[in-house]
Amino acid sequence: MFFFKVTACVKEELREQQSVMHESMVNALRSGVATPGPGQQMMASQQRTLMQDVKAALDKRQYNAAFRLALTATDLDAVLYVCEKCPLKEVFGRPDVLEMAVLFSMVQQLGVDIGSRTRLKVEYLEESLFAIGGRFEDLDHNSFKYLRRVLQDLVKLLSKFMQAHPEHEMYRNIRMIAQNAELQLRQIDAMHGGASLKQEATHD
């Protein structure tokens, strides 16, 4: 009897964690609905407060918190600042440093205007997609649905850029990112039924 009570408690806790993670992803994705860009409409005081909070998180090596602050504000300058200041090996050296919601939003926002600060964006897109692919088992059906949308948008943005800039010095890297995103889309469709996800997406 005790075993069954413990099992029920564990299942309930997992459901709660899954619900929190899902809500976090939804909020992160919604925060990126508006196309971010340099100098997006933020008051100077808000910008100063944001950067102070970001720098404070970085000083404490709270990389997830720093990215979450910048991504939630949809301030691409702030996001790129965090990318520059974070040691890539520490950020992606362990799978638990960045939340999935942060990774989703990072892919969504860094895919915009890939022609600017290309090398930095490429580095983080490569690592983010690799990190997401390694944690598929952490995602539920709804999370896969959101991820599918993010990856589709990324492929469209990168394909458009490659068509316009076939001689770009980072062309091969960008093509590999697009191919990785397409591979993950195929994996999602195979694992969770592409037809049902597509049908659900049309009703969102």
Task: Explain how this protein is built.
The structure is a single chain. This protein has 204 residues and is mainly α. It has one domain (32-203): conserved c-terminal region of ge- 1 (Annexin V, domain 1, Orthogonal Bundle), CATH 1.10.220. Helices cover 75% and strands 0% of the residues. The protein is built from 10 helices and no strands. The protein has helices spanning 2-31, 44-59, 63-72, 76-85, 88-92, 100-110, 118-133, 141-164, 171-192, 194-203. α1 packs parallel to α6 (100-110), α8 runs antiparallel to α9 (171-192) and α8 (141-164) packs across α10 (194-203). The longest helix has 30 residues, at 2-31. The chain is globular. It starts with a helix and ends with a helix. The model is unreliable at 1-18 and 31-37 (pLDDT under 50).
